[in-house]
Amino acid sequence: MSYSYSSIKQFENCPRQYHEVKILKRYKSQDTTATLYGTAVHKAFEDHVKDGTPLPPSYERYAKFVEPLAAMQGELRCEEKLGIRGDFTPCGFFDTDVWFRGVPDYLALNHDAGVARVADYKTGKSSRYADTAQLELMAAMVFIHHPHIKVVKGVLLFVVADDVIKAEYSREALPGILSRWAGRANAIETATESGTWNPKASGLCGFCPVEACEYQKQRR
Description:
The chain has one domain: Lambda Exonuclease, Chain A, CATH 3.90.320. Strand 3 (82-85) and strand 4 (90-91) form a beta hairpin. The strands form two sheets. A five-stranded mixed β-sheet has the order 2-6-7-8-9, sandwiched between helices. It has a four-stranded mixed β-sheet with strand order 1-5-3-4. The chain is of the alpha+beta class. The chain is globular and about 50 Å long. 38% of the residues lie in helices and 21% in strands. The chain contains seven helices and nine strands, in the order βααααββββββαββαα.
């Protein structure tokens, strides 16, 4: 099995949804106005960082977030697909033996200084439940793919909420990071072996595509 930050979070939020969507593929998550807006903002930021394309007028208020990224020293990469194997070696995103996948919205590699910067763009209206674990996983992948990198500095850019959440990781922290994510992946493997995919009610049930779930039905 292969995993990602989003799939781990989906399982932890609701094992039933994970099973129905990711494994059985009986349902698909549908785009919403919010997700389409997020996709458009991501594309505008990518074009600005890679090619210097001016931000569309409707996104110009976000320039203070993306312009420093475009001006960062080092090798700049956008939406780079990374993969690692279960033995903690680097691999391709689509390799058959990939264990974890990740796609940093932004990656800057300062090879001389041994420092990398990763950023993930968020278009939610609040940063209250910001989760830096996403940055932690991205840092681990960067360390594995780039052995000369000693420090990864990460940011979650909540452009709509006008907030920045920072985190920093050293290479010495890599074993602990990998251990934590192996444990989180193991919970899915345990559910697979036991066949236990219990639903978990939350405020997200109304947005869930699994129409057969009793909790989703209660919120219609």
